[in-house]
Amino acid sequence: MRRMLGGLPVLLNVDYLEHKSDFHATEKVIFTGPIDEFYGFKHGKLAYRGQIRDHEYRPGVDSVYPKGQINTPSRELGDHVRVLEWKHMMEEPFGSSISGTVLTTETPFSPEDPSDYEYPFPDQSNQDLYAEYRALAEDDADNVLICGRLGEYRYYDMDQAIGRAMKLTSELDGWQSTRLGYTSD
């Protein structure tokens, strides 16, 4: 991480939007948070989904499920959409040597706090509202690049998010891999 960010100032636990006027970017800002929040909810709030994750340790239980991830899309099984059993995701011999098992149950909810946003809720009315925010972002394209799952109001798997970030940075004028602290050799 240090090599990747070499020479770049890094501030932790600072909300950019709360302190935006304190920052004076000499180059384009890359913002990956909620696009509606970036514009102060000027056109209203987009809907997002979040996940409540409940963790449970079951001592003395070898395993509960046959696989590491069980999707449960039916409400007949409860409000949760997925259960993770972590020991299945560990390399052997570690998984089988652990006493007990840990389950994580994920239940979707509609968060109000932007820090809880995880996924867009792209129904037609939200897509229309997003288009208004995207137009603002296009007008600001010389100064800011709003991207990512929350910035583009689009679901990305992690591999897609990384690929998208690499594509976007390669398209930025004057952006070079050496600025990220690595070279192609």
Walkthrough of the structure:
- The protein has helices spanning 35-38, 94-97, 124-139, 148-151, 158-171, and strands at residues 29-31, 48-58, 69-71, 82-85, 101-109, 119-120, 144-146.
- It is of the alpha+beta class.
- The chain folds into two domains: 26-46 and 114-180, Rossmann fold (3-Layer(aba) Sandwich), CATH 3.40.50.720; 48-109, no CATH class.
- The longest helix has 16 residues, at 124-139.
- The protein is globular, with a radius of gyration of 21 Å.
- The two termini are 18 Å apart.
How would you summarize this macromolecular structure in one to three sentences?
The protein is of the alpha+beta class and 185 residues long.
Q: How are the SSEs ordered, and which strands pair?
A:
Blueprint: E1 29-31, H1 35-38, E2 48-58, E3 69-71, E4 82-85, H2 94-97, E5 101-109, E6 119-120, H3 124-139, E7 144-146, H4 148-151, H5 158-171
Parallel strand pairs: 1-7
Antiparallel strand pairs: 2-5, 2-6, 3-4, 4-5
Supply the key terms.
two-stranded parallel ribbon, single chain, alpha+beta, five-stranded antiparallel beta sheet, disordered C terminus, 185 residues, Rossmann fold, 19% strand
